[in-house]
Amino acid sequence: MPLPTRIGFIGLGIMGRAIAANLVKAGFQVSVYNRTREKTMEFADMGCQVAATPGALAKMSDTIITMVSDPAAMQAVMDGPDGFFPAFSEGKALINMSTLSPDYTSSLAAKCLAAGITFLDCPVSGSKSAAENAQLVILAGGEKMTVGRFTPLLKAMGNAVVYAGPAPAGTALKLCINLIVAQLTTALAEAAALAEAQDLSPELIFETLKENSALNCGYFSLKKKNILGKEYPPAFPLKHMLKDAGFMLAEAAKRGLELPVTAAVEKLMAKSYNSGYGDKDLTVVLANLTEPLRR
Ligand code: NAP
After folding, report:
1. Which fold does the domain 172-294 belong to in CATH?
2. Domain spanning 6-166 has what CATH number?
3. Tell me, what's the pLDDT at 292?
């Protein structure tokens, strides 16, 4: 079956904006919808059709890609007023790239199956810069043959597609990867706070990590500027990682598994969120560790 070329993209936030732009650059016919209309303007300038509603987008697309915040946002664009699902017909495809819960993703897969719509569960690993440079790692759940069929499209957005198994395996894998990212971030923040408390420059931490080939991790370099400058422009907003930590803990609890470090990290992130830092990059947890020291 040929690859569908009429792509409808929903969700032009930090990630979606960069991903959709790469699809345009790769030559796909892209139409867009975003709740906040201003964010669609640059796409109109690129020659994309802008849909007034998700339902209108469904009529101009063979494949819809969603990159929205969470299950509530997905529900709103799918089944809310003028949602895309009722306007989407049999034979079309839905690729979800947002990080949703495994349970919600299973329900999406079942809903699509019943309606004759192909569903791919494709959350991504990689943040804003990886999205901009089409270097995301796409964690693919769904039928293996379908993932293979859509791989040329997925490869326009990322450098690798890791096949995880039937849906919601892409989402299940995404939670495992984000567990590591959440812990690495808080480890960096706590190390920086401890260095400061001992009158050491946190810069020395990064210098040491860089010189140690076993610890020289690209993620640390990516977050160095935030940690040292104590400025947190959002690449991965804290509110999204807090949502993901909730999903991790819920999945673990369902299986009688304890994740004590993740639970502690979630608590720290919740404190940061409650301090009003939800829209900042998740490195902002450092603020909650160091601010009391200054009082
Ligand atoms: P973001 O910048 O906050 O963008 C969220 C998008 O969802 C926006 O387009 C927003 O529309 C839309 N949205 C939110 N609530 C909505 C609603 N009720 N109805 C309709 N649209 C709604 O988030 P992001 O960083 O791009 O992340 C998107 C997803 O990817 C999340 O699930 C996140 O966990 C995941 N993710 C993020 C990263 C990262 O590094 N940022 C990396 C991997 C995965 P408006 O523009 O109108 O607000």
Report:
1. N-(1-d-carboxylethyl)-l-norvaline Dehydrogenase; domain 2 (1.10.1040)
2. 3.40.50.720
3. 54
